[in-house]
Amino acid sequence: MKNNGNGVTRRESLKIIGGAAGLMTMGLPINLGAQEPIRLGTLCPLTGAGGPYGPQMQQAIAAVVKELNDAGGIWGHPVQLFNEDSQTNPEAAVRAVHKLIDVNKVIAVMGTWASAVTMAVAPICFNNRVVEFSVSGADAISDLKDDDYIWRTQPNTFLQGEFHAKFALQKGWKRIAYMAVQTPYAKSFGDTYKKVAEAGGAKILEYLIYEADKPSYRSELTKVLATKPEHIMLMGYTPDSIAIFKELYKMGYKGGIQGPSFAINQKLVDGVGAEVAEGAYSLDPASDLQSPAFKNLTRLLGAQDVNSYAAQTYDHINLVTLSLAEGKVNTGTGIRDNLRKVANPPGTEVSGFMEGYKLIKEGKKINYQGASGACDFDDKGDILSRPFSFSQVKGGKLVVIGGIKG
Amino acid sequence: MAEYYFQYIVNGIISGGILALPAIAFSLLYGILRFANFAIGTYLTAGAFIAYAANVTLGLPIYAAFLVTMVVSGFLGVGVDQLAFRPMRKRRPLTLAIVSIAVSFILENMARFIWGNEHKSYNIPVLRGMEWGGIRIGKEQILILFIALAFMILIQALLRFTRMGKAMRAVADNAMLASVKGIDSEQVILRTSYIGAALAGTAGMMVGIDTTIDPLMGFKFVLSIFASAILGGIGSATTAVGGAFFVGLAEEVSMIWLPATYKSAIGFGMIVLVLLFRPQGLFGRNR
Amino acid sequence: MINYLIAIFTFVLIYAMLALGLNLQWGFTGLVNLGHVGFFAIGAYTSALLAKAGVPFALSLAVAILLAGFAGTLLAMTTLRLKEDFLAIVTLGFSEILRLFLLNESWLTGGANGIIDIPRPIRRLIGQHYYEIFYLLMLAAVLLLVFLFLERLRLSPYGRMLRAIREDEIVAATAGKNVFRSKVQVFTLGASLAGLAGVFYAHYLSYIAPEMFVPLVSINVWVALIAGGSGNNKGAILGAFVLMGFLESTRFVKDFIPMLSGFRLAAVREILVGLSLILIMIYKQEGVLPEEKILS
User: Fold this and answer.
1) 3-class DSSP assignment, residue A195
2) Residues from chain B contacting residue C32 (CB–CB below 8 Å)
3) Number of domains in chain B
4) ipTM higher than 0.90?
5) What is the domain extent for residue C105?
6) Domain CATH for B201
7) A-chain residues near B126 (CB < 8 A)
8) pTM score, two decimals?
9) Is residue C200 situated within a structural domain?
10) What is the dihedral of CA C85, C91, C94, C99, to 10 degrees?
11) I want to staple C23 with a disulfide (CB 3.0 to 4.6 A). Which of A85, A258, C236, C243 is the partner?
């Protein structure tokens, strides 16, 4: 290797040029004198069933990366972000993750949405010592033998089911029907909800799991309404929830509806109209709307309506970058080993990378509190708890009416 | 108690009404062009989006959007025919069916490119439905049934009393004989493509009113449309309606006993049974 | 980069196996099977469930192939007499009803959760570092055997008879050949191959779920056959490469076209695939779908 006289070898200059070229294609400013970039990957559902959520999920991550790169990177290293589309398709996601890991050499994969996608790419991630962060809900994910490389910010269904049921009991509803779209967690959520609700004195009059993507749910609703419920627990996605809300309204249903915030959100309200959505309850186990982190995210995204999955991916990137900063490492294993240090208490509470990094540089211990909750993890890589905020649709807008700090 | 079961029948009639127009369209197209046009679902989607563009983007009132949809959707059908199917007139039905699948990919993704994946709605309020003796039905749904009925009558009249209609029936019956009698089959094809896509597009707008609008909406109907046309006796626009109501009823009424997660199996099951045991359809005559 | 290519090639070979099976069905029986993914699913699920229950790989493989073949026999016997575009719809129905069964009967199949931790054959022996390439080589060896077998079949007396049936059924029938039975046999063989592909798929990914066995997969295999052209076995394998080219086409391109957002880029890719398919169909006069002799 020729040393061209000013101390920089050809290999190093090539690395710098390569890194700079890479940065240029990302549109990021070049950090002259930068060292090895930190490569991170996103695998959000930009198309397919998760398509409505994916773009914003990726955007949230990109916004944090841009901010930190503009400020000089992590210990002087710029972050290079590689984005792939999971297509909400496990096979396509497997090919995509191979590209991210084998070609782009990322040390973290963030933003997997569908449970099937998360589970399909998990072995590839942990076999390559790459951490994976997902927003998926299926319980099987907790059971993966993943050597602590697989993490998620979505609470499992037992926690969710319990909270939804407790909310219903708190409201005094006694005659409840459960409807859910066919997903890996429809049954586990429903069973928990039913158990807790019935233990509290309510009755689940109808337990109906329906097919996704059907053009109408008239007869499914006929069956449910025949039991004359005063309240419906609707565990669906936004598309089918919109269809069901409209149909219930047309069928003259005047009872209450309760659902998760990834379905009952402003998009649903806009889609069905203020009057149809009026009074519906949205339980938010995955966004802490009052938190400084959420406010920071809203600022970064330009105050568009933030979906609950984007709140989680915002947390993914912050957790990853803070772990890297804390451990002064550039590997997936390093992220894994430092994650609980920055995520779990004790420590000064921070709500974003910039804030946390400042404290890390001063040698202080931090406790990241995210936009989707406290982000404290158990030994399986699941979150321990999360705050719940209860919102209700009033006059065409979702209004926070209460909450439980998890 | 009886009204509980009757409600399912009402639901089935509504579903049948929605299916009737695309089923007629599919059968018309099949009769003239002699292949299963998988793109029928995307004509439906396209109609819904055209109405969206008119109503929400351009701000036209809903009935104006309706007229726009009817007129513009037809041109889409003509365009697709001239670009994709015309070079293949002499080819076997399978080839054309595969091409129609490719066309449906293209149209669906064009919609996705322009409007994205999210579900949209028109600028109209959702109305409270009506209730008669325990039976519930939505006001929009009654409107949809009326519109479907009106079009069914119109198409019947077209086929029976107009020269174009007679020409269409002649070509559907026996293309060679029709050309011997001086009927220009290309003209008939153009007109049928227009009408077929216009019908499907109108149905699309109605579905959009009933539920939501998204790039995949038509695809969800393709199965039921096929079933309706096949049950009705493929190639016959009149009996396609019978098939549509039959399918609609079967899908909704079966929900009384069947788990909701097997709804799609109904459509397929019926197709399989009919094709195996009575390929001319329930109402069709032996070809 | 190497590992990425190994992964891609593994998928290509699995699709090649699927294409060979479909080509067998199409090429020799003229049967339009839009439900090929159904046999793929039967192979995958059977082997996965058996392997998780402790059955050794060789045995689970054998049972899976037999079951897929059996399903093929049933489907062929019930549908062979239908008109070709209706046949397509019925086979599609078969694969969709199967998928609903896999999705809903979670007591057996795990339902929407799918099956995780499917054991990989002789994993412990090979160790992690070289396993991917070992699996690819094993798959390649099996595919080669299948290919050679199919070529022998094509050139054998049996194969000549099959070709005679395809060329002119009526003549073959009058010559005393049992056309129907031969068609069922060949269809069964094609279904078994799809089942074999399914076994390799399940054990490669260690995870399967019903949503991976949708009609789009069947259509992709058809695209492979059509793109590979010529309707012969080599064409089927070539087509699998072309298909993967289509599917992966935008992946590296997009790093240079940042202005198109994710879903738009995917939409463009799908549109281009659709256009390519149409153009191939328009301009390829000979080849995969030769025009039928019209007899009536």
Assistant:
1) helix
2) 94
3) 1
4) no
5) 2-214
6) 1.10.3470
7) 246, 249-250, 272-273, 275-276
8) 0.85
9) yes
10) -100
11) C236
